[in-house]
Inverse folding.
């Protein structure tokens, strides 16, 4: 029994908790991607760099606040700086839309033209972010780092294995739940949210009904930019901030959106957790867990790791491939064409 | 200006720009730009075959270029003693396992009932993967320990020029796999899938030490051109140096670079000729017809997805060839140096700026954008230095600005792409319609 | 002057004109029907009146006011409602949300209008929480008409409302349209089912190649042997 509990604690500590946190971060990113997709009908390659930009602003303000000695301990100061990052990212996204995407929207350009334009936007965001904060890793977590510490947990339970729960992890899940609840409430209960869904469903009829496309598009960018910043800041608190890593997050985020059914907000959230849990469970080395569970003498020699952590992108890709092969519309039947 | 005159004028301007570097700075620098321009032009040609002929957006150019680079290592590097004896058997078994699994899946799929086809495929693929790992892991470890500091298999020790077509084949194979899955769905999906495959290819190259030494890099890849040190002592080089009033060291460097450039130019010329012929052939016309009106082409009974697959594979192969050439030029394979901005998205800027669907445009784009990429660095330094001078020297802002100079490059490239797409979407040399 | 009066409409999509001096007029509370062979420009005339097609010549007036230069959205604000032939509902949204979106431009309380729509189409009330895309063809048309009614239009324009529905459903829809007209709303519709449509029409327009061929009351057109022979199949 104790062996089983130890295995469970080990598994929770190294798989369940990290995957839940990571899943929440991906879900927020994918929700933004899917909103852009439903309303503007293209996959935004600049989303990772938009995340990086919003996070960069938040970090800058966090540093400023820390220097002034302003904080909200035990919560991280970044939470206080978050609104600035969101507003900045929103402003950048709205400017980008006005200067870049609006033109193609009015000409009803092919989606792939939007994708290429978003590549140009990605370059520019990339340069702006790095201009301010450089290319290196940045850590900006402060406040109480842990909710549960490993030694406390051991003392509490008397088990050999410990369990740690970091503030940032709890925060990520809570903030994600609030943000997702807000987005769903907004889309399903408010007039503006419903008009976004109407516009995405049937653009011509939305125009006939007097829904202003400009307004819908602006609201969409505001939501996407805020969600991107939120995802970026939470990811940065949990791990660390690095502009290139944020660009690379594009792949799991896209995979999440497509797995869930692109254009389906519920799908984006579920997809985020599917991708995160697949990634973590496949790249975790099960040696420790199996040693507890298997009878003595049968403990595995190797790490029992299905895939090296360096190959975590392969997991997103394989999930993507399976979805494309098996059910291109995704779990919640999104739009494909 | 008529089409041909415009093309000629633009190419003349490009030549003048490179000559200017030679006259004002140094001929070795000018030739270095020329060399990479030629390789860039080939990559751009490959991407243009996919985008210009068929409207396919390949966001994984980097991966295909890197696969070409692997070909350089596997073909030209000498075999490492003891590697084959240590891990050869297991490695062979691992490859056999993969092939057997693939064959089994291909054999069983049509014979299985619909309901369990996909789950069975996935289970088989997973079991195949486990079996492959069962052989690959010991092979990798054995090769690592048997070869000491080398730590990898090495290659076949063949002439490096053979690696160029082989690089194309490697890239073509990967492209076939990706295309099979992602083509036929919406255009964004191909972009996302190719973005993914490029990351995976790079992850493999960085981590599979037995194959490519991973991040330890493979250096000293044999050259197709005599070494500069050897050239310096050749009587004809010394003679040439005397005639131009230059020293043999300088002359040897120029000769060596020219030699590379000529080799690259030959490949570019062949590929350009083939691409032009293909574009003007009935096949090329059909491809563009499909691109411009997919529904009509499908209604006429054309299997669009299959034709797209062919174009995608061909374009990727061209990128793979260029990737092998790049490694040849560098003389080393450094997996960590591949980054998507430089190797995927920069190529896209080349295609869009040069002229989508026009091979001469894509080649010009390759030259021009590479040139701009190179000169953007000094311009960025100059700009930031001047901006920094406005602030207090030696202060935080000053040092920050100087550190930020490299980011001028992506900014410039992004702006060039956006401006071109908006104001000259057909590029410098637009596609000729209705040929 | 008629409530809606479109005069000498000439225009088309590209270089070639589809309409050649076509004229349509509808009085208050009247049902007017446009019929004619395929390619006669029926839907085009409708789109021109609604502002989805730029006219080269001619003029459209609503309640005496010239509206030729207005966009469709502005015409909706002036009291025109339009039900397109296809894609005329928000398929992924519930029936109630469809009606709500119909009332998007209204700043006042529209719950009364919604109740009126529900009393006109009781089935919609039953299915108010269901996605419009899951409804049958006839019910979907009701949603489409209901959506257009939410702005309380003075003129309701219907582009082939009975296309693809069964004869029973068609009769039902026509009954509803008569009911709507009785509340004082003018109706202008294009119909393929010419005979049945002219039956309920106060006025009928027969268009041929973008020109008015016959204009009369529905009854008179149905009685005209020439019209019967050429356009109504005997």
């Amino acid at each position: 029994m104790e062996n089983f509990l130890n295995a469970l604690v080990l598994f929770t500590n190294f798989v369940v908790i990290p995957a839940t946190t990571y899943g929440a971060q991906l879900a927020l990113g994918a929700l933004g991607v899917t909103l852009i997709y439903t309303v503007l009908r293209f996959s935004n390659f600049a989303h990772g760099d938009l995340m990086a930009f919003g996070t960069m602003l938040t970090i800058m303000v966090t540093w400023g606040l820390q220097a002034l000695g302003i904080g909200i301990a035990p919560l991280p100061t970044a939470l206080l700086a978050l609104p600035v990052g969101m507003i900045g990212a929103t402003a950048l996204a709205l400017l980008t839309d006005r200067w870049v995407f609006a033109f193609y929207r009015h000409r009803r350009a092919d989606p792939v033209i939007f994708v290429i334009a978003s590549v140009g936007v990605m370059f520019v965001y990339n340069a702006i972010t790095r201009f301010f904060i450089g290319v290196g890793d940045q850590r900006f977590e402060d406040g109480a780092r842990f909710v549960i510490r490993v030694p406390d947990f051991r003392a509490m339970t008397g088990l050999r294995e410990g369990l740690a729960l970091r503030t940032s992890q709890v925060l990520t899940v809570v903030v994600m739940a609030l943000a997702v609840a807000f987005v769903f409430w907004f889309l399903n209960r408010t007039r503006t949210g419903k008009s976004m869904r109407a516009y995405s469903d049937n653009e011509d009829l939305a125009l006939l009904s007097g829904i202003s496309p400009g307004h819908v598009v602006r609201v969409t960018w505001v939501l996407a930019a805020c969600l991107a910043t939120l995802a970026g800041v939470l990811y940065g608190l949990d791990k660390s901030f690095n502009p290139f890593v944020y660009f690379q997050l594009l792949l799991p985020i896209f995979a999440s959106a497509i797995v869930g059914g692109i254009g389906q907000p519920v799908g984006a959230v579920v997809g985020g957790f599917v991708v995160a849990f697949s990634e973590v469970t496949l790249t975790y080395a099960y040696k420790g867990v199996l040693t507890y569970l298997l009878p003595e003498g049968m403990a595995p020699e190797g790490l029992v790791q299905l895939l090296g952590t360096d190959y975590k992108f392969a997991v997103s890709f394989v999930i993507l491939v399976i979805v494309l092969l098996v059910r291109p519309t995704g779990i919640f039947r999104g739009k494909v064409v | 200006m008529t089409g041909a005159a415009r093309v000629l004028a633009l190419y003349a301007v490009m030549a003048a720009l490179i000559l200017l570097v030679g006259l004002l700075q140094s001929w070795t620098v000018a030739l270095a730009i020329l060399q990479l321009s030629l390789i860039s032009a080939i990559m751009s040609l490959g991407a243009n075959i996919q985008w210009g002929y068929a409207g396919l957006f390949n966001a994984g150019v980097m991966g295909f270029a890197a696969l070409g680079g692997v070909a350089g290592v596997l073909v030209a590097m000498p075999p490492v003693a003891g590697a084959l004896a240590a891990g050869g058997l297991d490695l062979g078994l691992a490859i056999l396992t993969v092939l057997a699994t693939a064959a089994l899946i291909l054999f069983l799929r049509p014979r299985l009932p619909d309901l369990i086809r996909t789950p069975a495929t996935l289970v088989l693929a997973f079991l195949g993967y486990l079996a492959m790992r069962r052989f690959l892991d010991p092979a990798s470890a054995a090769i690592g320990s048997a070869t000491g500091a080398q730590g990898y298999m090495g290659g076949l020790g063949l002439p490096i020029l053979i690696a160029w077509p082989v690089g194309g084949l490697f890239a073509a194979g990967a492209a076939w796999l990706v295309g099979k899955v992602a083509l036929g769905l919406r255009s964004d999906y191909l972009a996302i899938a190719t973005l993914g495959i490029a990351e995976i290819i790079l992850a493999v190259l960085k981590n599979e030490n037995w194959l490519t030494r991973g991040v330890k890099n493979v250096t000293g890849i044999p050259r197709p051109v005599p070494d500069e040190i050897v050239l310096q002592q050749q009587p004809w080089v010394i003679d040439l140096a005397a005639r131009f009033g230059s020293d043999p060291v300088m002359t040897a460097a120029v000769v060596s670079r020219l030699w590379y450039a000529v080799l690259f130019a030959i490949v570019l010329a062949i590929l350009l000729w083939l691409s032009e012929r293909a574009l003007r052939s009935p096949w090329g016309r059909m491809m563009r017809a499909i691109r411009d009106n997919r529904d009509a082409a499908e209604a006429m009974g054309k299997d669009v997805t299959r034709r797209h697959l062919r174009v995608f594979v061909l374009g990727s192969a061209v990128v793979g060839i260029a990737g092998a050439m790049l490694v040849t030029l560098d003389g080393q394979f450094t997996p960590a140096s591949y980054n998507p901005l430089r190797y995927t998205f920069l190529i896209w800027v080349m295609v869009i700026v040069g002229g989508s669907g026009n091979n001469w445009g894509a080649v010009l784009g390759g030259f021009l954008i590479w040139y701009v990429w190179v000169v953007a660095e000094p311009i960025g330094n100059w700009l930031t230095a001047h901006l920094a001078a406005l602030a207090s020297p030696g202060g935080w802002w000053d040092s920050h600005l100087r550190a930020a100079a490299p980011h001028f490059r992506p900014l410039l490239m992004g702006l060039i792409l956006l401006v071109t797409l908006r104001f000259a979407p057909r590029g410098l040399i637009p596609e000729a319609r209705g040929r | 002057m008629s409530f809606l009066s479109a005069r000498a409409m000439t225009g088309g999509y590209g270089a070639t004109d589809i309409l050649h001096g076509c004229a349509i007029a509808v009085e208050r509370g009247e049902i007017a029907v446009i019929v004619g062979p395929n390619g006669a420009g029926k839907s085009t005339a409708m789109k021109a009146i609604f502002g989805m097609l730029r006219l080269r010549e001619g003029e459209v007036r609503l309640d005496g006011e010239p509206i030729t230069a207005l966009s469709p959205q502005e015409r909706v604000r002036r009291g025109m409602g339009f039900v397109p032939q296809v894609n005329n509902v928000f398929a992924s949204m519930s029936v109630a949300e469809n009606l709500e979106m119909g009332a998007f431009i209204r700043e006042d309380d529209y719950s009364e209008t919604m109740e009126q729509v529900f009393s006109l189409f009781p089935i919609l009330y039953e299915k108010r929480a269901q996605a419009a895309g899951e409804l049958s063809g006839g019910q979907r048309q009701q949603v489409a008409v209901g959506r257009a009614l939410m702005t309380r239009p003075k003129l309701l324009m219907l582009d082939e409302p009975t296309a693809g529905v069964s004869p029973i459903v068609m009769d039902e829809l026509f009954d509803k349209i008569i009911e709507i007209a009785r509340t004082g709303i003018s109706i202008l519709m294009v119909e393929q089912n010419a005979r049945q449509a002219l039956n309920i029409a106060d006025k009928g327009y027969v268009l041929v190649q973008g020109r008015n061929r016959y204009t009369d009351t529905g009854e008179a057109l149905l009685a005209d042997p020439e019209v019967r022979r050429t356009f109504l199949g005997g």
